[in-house]
Structure prediction request, 83 residues.
Amino acid sequence: MIGFEDTGREKASQLPFKVAIERLKIKPEDVMMVSDSVSRDLIGARKLGMTTVLAKYGQVWKETEKGKADFEIDDISKILKIV
Prediction:
């Protein structure tokens, strides 16, 4: 787990994701980031080349940033079709 304390940056930045993939010794294209927030979580992951999934079922407020995530799901069971 990589927290703010590890990088001094929020997840909208690429740095927390970069640190995670370096520590795990994996490629960004082998990672899928699932989140209910495009602006808070998915932007940094997508910029690094990770697959991004907007979990619309978990949103407290609705984000309408179409095209900002590779996939959108309204139920966690739909993740299996993407994987």
